[in-house]
Amino acid sequence: xxxxxxxxxxxxxxxxxxxxxxxxxxxxxxxxxxxxxxxxxxxxxxxxxxxxxxxxxxxxxxxxxxxxxxxxxxxxxxxxxxxxxxxxxxxxxxxxxxxxxxxxxxxxxxxxxxxxxxxxxxxxxxxxxxxxxxxxxxxxxxxxxxxxxxxxxxxxxxxxxxxxxxxxxxxxxxxxxxxxxxxxxxxxxxxxx
Length: 193
What we know:
By secondary structure, the protein is an alpha+beta fold. It has 2 domains: about 1-15 and about 140-180, no CATH class; about 20-140, Adenine-n6-DNA-methyltransferase TaqI, Chain A, domain 2. Helix content is about 35%, strand content about 25%. It has 3 helices and 8 strands. The chain has helices at about 1-10, 105-110, 140-185; strands at about 20, 25-30, 45-50, 50-55, 60-70, 75-85, 90-95, 135. The radius of gyration is 24 Å and the shape is extended. The relative contact order is 0.16. The model has no long low-confidence stretch (mean pLDDT about 90).
């Protein structure tokens, strides 16, 4: 964290500025489209619902966005860096001014918020207007970019380690089954008269 501390000390010695998510010059929050999940036709665009990719079609309604579950998996945060289609179950968060906000930085910040605590109603629901109550830290772009670089590296390393551990676990499971079967397989005793 040394480099980030140095950047903050140099670029914002009086502290980091906070911005409200309702600031339309920086952020745009809106609902996806369609009341039902489109049938998966194996299309080229991912379809996001409240909890991630649910289908694939040949139509998109946004690009380089963050998707937040607002019905069902309330508060679940996903990221799509390419073109995609978001259903009504997802709230789309877009960065309006990319010279001031790194979209990946916003994604990481949103994952740290306890978004389910903003839900209301008997059926869990997170409204677009609920985001207007939230303020987030917005350090200078150099700081945001460094934070993103570090967190992306950790994410990549974590995924790699997870894959390696999964492969190792499968290998150990096969080894365990082999020895279990070998150790617990006995020949039946034949009685001699």
